[in-house]
Amino acid sequence: MLRGNCPAKIDEKGRLKIPQAFRQLIEREWGRELFVTSVNGDHVRIYPMPAWERLEKQLGGGPWDPATKRFFKAVNYYGQTAELDNQGRVLIHPHLREKAGTLGEVDVLGEVDHLAVWNHERLEADVAANPVTEADEFALAQKRA
Which is more confidently placed, 20 or 61? Predict the structure, then answer.
């Protein structure tokens, strides 16, 4: 399970060096093939290919309603397949890198089966603007019960 936050950097060539703790887990559990994408361009999502394929099957297995069509249009617009290189780097293509504002210092968050790569200032503002509420905590407690 991918969890936590690791600061990282996307270099001038658009390569993100995956933080070591995440890299070891990804390679051990899923291999080196990845799908790099976004839903709306505000941040980058990096899925190990088996996790992405599982999501594709879950969402794309039945009739495609408008929400499913919009989702796949967006992730394919922003997305590309990739592979970890021998130094543990993955290329974030220029269009997505620019839209997400992710050149230079970034935060890499573990989100169970994928990584979320955020511009640090954008993430900080989003967390401040959308705090966990009492209602959220109640809803989460109901899931645990």
Answer: 20
The rounded distance, in Å, linking the Cα atoms of 122 and 125 is 5
What is the model's pTM? 0.92
Distance CA 123, CA 119 (A): 6
Give the list of residues 6+ apart from residue 6 with CB closer than 8 angstroms, or none: 19, 21, 22, 107, 108
Tens of pLDDT, residue by residue over 111-125, are 999 999 999 999 999
CA distance 70 to 60: 12
Rounded Cα distance, 55 and 114, in Å: 11
Asked whether the beta carbons of 32 and 84 are under 8 A apart, the reply is: yes
Q: Where are the alpha helices (DSSP H) in 19-112?
A: 20-29, 49-60, 66-78, 94-100
User: In this structure, what DSSP letter does residue 48 have?
Assistant: E
Over range 89-113, report the average pLDDT.
95
